[in-house]
Structures are given as C-alpha cells and as structure tokens.
Prior knowledge:
Elements: H1 2-14, H2 26-33, H3 38-53, H4 57-69, H5 73-84, H6 92-101, H7 109-121, H8 125-137, H9 145-158, H10 160-176, H11 185-196, H12 201-208, H13 219-238, H14 242-255, H15 260-273, H16 279-290, H17 296-306, H18 311-318, H19 325-338, H20 352-364, H21 378-388
Helix pairs in contact: 1-3, 2-3, 3-4, 4-5, 5-6, 6-7, 7-8, 8-9, 8-10, 9-10, 10-11, 11-13, 12-13, 13-14, 14-15, 16-17, 16-18, 17-19, 19-21
Amino acid sequence: MRRRSLLLAACLLTAPAIACAGVPGWDQLKADLASPTADVHDAAASGLRDMAEKGQHKAAVLLAEDLVARGDAAGARQVLIEASAREGFPAWMKLGDMLATGAGGEVDAKGAFDAYGRAAAAGNPWGHLRVARMYRDGTGVEADAGQSLHHFEAALAAGGEAADMARRDLIGGHLGGKFGSFSDPEAGTRLASDAMGTQDMKMAFLLARLPVEIPGVDEAALGPLREKALSLVSAAAEAGDPAAVAALFDHWAARARTSREAEASLAELVRDQGALLDASRLVKFGIQDGGARMSPQERRDMVAKLEGLTGKDYLNAFGATGINPNLRLQAIQSLLAKAGYYDGKADGLLGLLTIKAMNRFCRHNGLAAECKGGPLSYATGRAIAERLVF
C-alpha cells in the first residue's frame, strides 16, 4: 500500500494531466481513504501528505477533508494554511470557513476575511458573498457599506444559489437601513418584487419578518409584496413547515404589542403549532403573554426558562422583556450572581447591591457607553446579557 501511494504521488506530481499506467488515480485514492481497513486508509493518507508537502494542492484539499471527517479539524486547518502559502491554492473558501468558525483553532476573523477576499478575487461568488457580509457587519475588517454593496452585487451578477442569498441580503439591507447612507428602500422593494415573482419561500420569510414601519419605504409598493409573502408563509405553516411556523411567529410577535388581532393570531399559532416552534420562541411568547404583571413566582419560573437557553436563543427571548422591567432586572440579577458580581437576591427589585453590581460589571467589561441609560434601561440589560450568555 505504501509503495502504491508513493507511485501515485510521483505520477501525479510529474504528469498530473495524463493517465499513469498501472498506478491508481484520484478516484482510487478517494476510495482508499474511505476504506474501513486502517492500513489501506493510512497508506492513502500518507501518499496525500507526501504530495501536499510537494505542492500538490488537490492532495492537500483531499487530506484536509479526510482529517475533518476523522475529527482532526486542527490538522486539517494546518494542512490548508501551509498549502495556502503556495501559488495557485484553490481552497480559499474552505480555509476561510475554518478560520471564521474557529474550526481547529481560534476564530480568526481577519484571516477569514483575507481568505474570502482571495476567493472573491478569483471570481468565486461565495467569496463575494462572505466578503460583502463582513464589510457590512465590520467583521474582520472596518465596516464599509460601499464595499459591501459592491461585493453583494458581484455575487448577485454571478447567478445561482449565492446570487439568491445576495439578493435576500440586499433586500434586507436596503429596507432595514443596514447600508447606512447607501441604503436605498426603492432598490430593496424592486429586488423584493422580482424575487416574489418566483414565489421564493426564503424571500417570503424575509418579507414576513420585516418591521411594521420602515422609514423611506413606499408602502403602496411594498404592502402587496408583504401580503403575498404572508399568504405564502401562512399556507406553508398550515402544511407543517417548521421554518414557516417560525417566520409566522416572528411576524405576529412583532405586532402583538400594538394590535389585538396580531396578539390573537400569535396565541392561536402557538396553541395550534407550538410543537413546531423552538424553545426560544416559546419562552418569548410566555414573556409576552405574561405581560407586565407577572407575580414574583411567575418571574422566577420565567427566569429559569430563560436560563435554559444560551447565546442567540437567550437574547431572542430576552428581547421580549421590554414589556416587563422587573423580569428583565431579575434575569440580569441572576446572570450577575452566577458570574460572581452580585450576591443579593434575584427578585427583580432595584436596590443598592444591584446598582453596584451592574455598574461594576459594565466598568470591568468596557460597557460604559452601552450602560449609560442606567440599570433599568433595556439597552443596559441587553449589553450585560450579551456578555454573559455566550
């Protein structure tokens, strides 16, 4: 097996474009990697490593994929990093994804941005899409709305799935003001109209989740698109599509505080299809349904449910505490207590111990600007929660 791998390495390094008589090719090598026999697999992996070290990029990529499949993301990341130093490296997207997610090591946002940028420069629409999002969000690079739009439009022009995703991002960005002074609600509406002409369900989800009021938007043009999207989402939800149920929940939840009809529709959705909703939305509904007059015990129970969530799920549900300052404060007291900043009672009541704990946490974590609204403000509570639930 070792001899066969070395023969393959020599052949593919010296004459990769022609058949090598008597020596197995890439297909056989892939089959050997998938072999349940350890000796066969190890010989193939050894041959790949030899080729990768001699500059054969295809071998490096195959070796990295095999290492990931076998649980060695750190090894795969190192193989790709070493290969990327050589001219003609083709796997910038794979490397960028590993750096962006922290697979096999620390998250390296700048490294990911550079890798995606190399992919974009080579004409990869997914590279353009990732770079566009990073410019938009200021991840790994200083935020730049103009550059973000440039790369989104490059991804859109390429067609295919990356273009579909770029179109949705452009619509959400223009209508949601995410491009700052470059935001163009009319352009967002035109793109949405084109997409809804194909009954794109993901586009329907996006439109169903748009805010009720969007500055600068002509509702005479956007309104019919919203209605069509809501109709599509409602039909899909009735058919049992969990993604549609979630989108419909978000639609009604955003309107429930100001509309009795929306409040009733939300309650009906949770009653009939709550089994298809995730825990975060169910907790959010419980907070909204409980309103501002929860009893102390109800608040304790709700805080316990919140703490059954983590990360973005916690923050999504926490967003509903805007209607109940005591619940929000109790949740923050509990988080601060677990972090060692607060040794008082988590009761949702503002006292000197709570004020000192919140101020100390904000000071220690560089949150002076976020916490300037004081201990009872939603912004202060969310800023503290964001630091403690990830």
